[in-house]
Amino acid sequence: MLHRLYARTLALAASPRAPWWLAAIAFAESSFFPIPPDVLLIPMALARPARAWRLAAICTVASVLGGALGWWIGYAVFDQLARPVIAFYGYGDRFAAFQAMYAQYGLWVILIKGLTPIPYKIVTIASGAAHFDFWLFMVASLATRGARFFMVAALIRLFGDPVRDFIERRLTLVTTLVAAGIVGGFLALRFL
Predict the structure, then answer these.
(1) Considering the chain, what percentage of its residues have pLDDT values greater than 90?
(2) What was the pLDDT predicted at 118?
(3) Which residues form the domain of 112?
(4) Would 166 be classed as within a structural domain?
(5) Residue 78: which residues within 8 A CB-CB, separation 6 or more?
């Protein structure tokens, strides 16, 4: 069953509408959707390695635009929904400390966490909630998301056929490792 799903994903990845789906998933993942765009980027690049750079660019632009929505959610909706709860429980000082910490280290948070499996939407929303400078956030997002997606494209361009052969021979192991990476990202976020 897993091999049929993999074959179907590769077939869909080669379809003319696949770049639009990739852009939609990359946009949504940066602000509210739980599944990273890599689950579509990798099979699409494997299906057509000559388009890996273009796909990484689509992913990067859509992810950064989605990050802008995530920033806005943190900036606008946070004040309306979360701030009253923070005030009710007397955590106003803690939130002020968080904002001060984010003002000092936020750029590093964005640059480092944008490369990890930790959900990027957490970074985008936190950046808005901390009122982190929007344009600096956008530049940092472009750098970190671009580095991540272009690194995937470079690896596929360099090792495309061997990677594809490895995935096809050890599909269960690969999907288990990808799932573990996603779960690990959520756990790291929870406990770090």
Answers:
(1) 22
(2) 67
(3) 39-161
(4) no
(5) 125, 128, 129
Q: What is the mean pLDDT of residues 123-141?
A: 91
- What Cα–Cα distance (Å) separates residue 147 from each residue in 25, 57, 104, 142, 185? 18, 10, 23, 8, 18
Q: Cα–chain-centroid distance for residue 45?
A: 17
User: Who's near 156: CB < 8 A, 6+ residues apart?
Assistant: 42, 45, 46, 49, 52, 163
Q: How many domains does the chain have?
A: 1
Give me the torsion for CA of 142, 27, 120, 87, rounded to 10°: 110
Within-domain flag for 169: no
Q: Are 139 and 114 in contact (CB under 8 A)?
A: no
**149 in any annotated domain:** yes
For the question of whether the overall pTM of this predicted structure is more than 0.85, the answer is: no
Q: Evaluate whether residue 127 is within a structural domain.
A: yes
